[in-house]
Design brief:
Order of helices and strands: HHHHHHHHHHH
Distance between the termini: 88 Å
Strand content: under 5%
Structural class: mainly alpha
Radius of gyration: 25 Å
Shape: globular
Length: 248
């Protein structure tokens, strides 16, 4: 029913469906998770169209941790076209990031050079990847101020993996020439990629990437050469140059 677009137009029917899904998932959550695994596997086999798969994923509510995890696993399962075991940990993301980059590089679904490229399919796939990334992969220790050297190194390695995925997403987005209303499917695909890039850099990353100033190195050298002190950089910049000797 979640695939049926008409259901989504009726609030009462949509909420009733979501409550039914929530009750079902919660009742199957007990035990070793075999039943939920079987449900995900059957859905992956039954739904082959990416647009319909996205409708199914978005029909799954996410107002509890167990529902959110099931929804994210379904989204990543449709993205990779196989069952994915998702763990909210830095190690889990490191393994996942390598799979994502490999998929983006090798799958025909992301070959923008193809003259018959399907931008609607790309939008659905990237949106499902975005849903799959809607969680925290950080280690709890990173939120504290007294981090050890090993914890800081682990955090830097994690952020490097996030940057690797976001760079690939940005490259795909930059290659799509947005033609406005004449090619809405391209605009939708570009928007989906940009949303995912923002999520990776602003939400998945444990901290914002340090901004580099183009004047940083020159300012540092001026500061050192003048002995430091307040206003020395500007003073050095504004001081008059000695006039050239006459006759030269």
């Amino acid at each position: 029913m979640g695939i049926d677009g008409e259901v989504g137009k009726h609030a009462e029917a949509r909420f009733t469906l979501q409550d039914a899904i929530a009750t079902l998932i919660d009742s199957l959550r007990v035990g070793d998770g075999t039943q939920l695994f079987n449900i995900r596997s059957r859905l992956l086999q039954a739904v082959s169209n990416e647009t319909l798969a996205l409708r199914l994923v978005t029909s799954i509510p996410d107002f509890s941790p167990s529902l959110s995890l099931f929804r994210r696993q379904m989204a990543l399962g449709f993205f990779f076209r196989k069952e994915i075991t998702l763990t909210n940990s830095p190690e889990g993301f490191t393994e996942l990031s390598s799979m994502i980059v490999r998929r983006l590089k090798t799958s025909d679904s992301y070959d923008l050079d193809n003259s018959n490229f399907d931008y609607v399919k790309l939008t659905a796939l990237i949106t499902m990847l975005d849903i799959g990334m809607a969680g925290s992969f950080e280690a709890p220790a990173w939120s504290g101020d007294a981090n050890t050297a090993d914890e800081r190194q682990a955090e830097d390695e994690f952020n490097s993996e996030v940057d690797r995925v976001s760079k690939r997403i940005y490259m795909l987005s930059s290659r799509i020439l947005d033609s406005g209303a004449s090619h809405m499917s391209r605009s939708d695909a570009k928007s989906a990629l940009e949303r995912l890039h923002v999520r990776l850099t602003k939400a998945v990353r444990s901290k914002a990437k340090a901004k580099k100033s183009v004047f940083a190195s020159s300012e540092a050298s001026i500061y050192a050469s003048t002995g430091g002190g307040e206003g020395t950089i500007m003073a050095k910049f504004l001081q008059k140059r000695a006039p050239f000797p006459k006759g030269e």
